[in-house]
Amino acid sequence: MPLTPTHEIVRRAHADGTGVGAFNVLQLEHAEAIVTGAERADRPVVLQISENTVRYHGGLEPVALASLALARAAKTPVAVHLDHAENPDLVREAVELGLGSVMFDAARLPYQENVATTREVVDLCHRHGVWVEGELGEVGGKGGAHDPGVRTDPGEARAFVAATGVDALAVAVGSVHQMVTRDAVLDLDLVARLRAAVDVPLVLHGSSGVPDPLLARAVAAGMTKVNVSTHLNKAFTGAVRGHLAAHPADVDPRRYLTPARVAVAEAVTHLLGVLDPR
Question: What's the whole-model pTM score?
Answer without folding.
Answer: 0.92
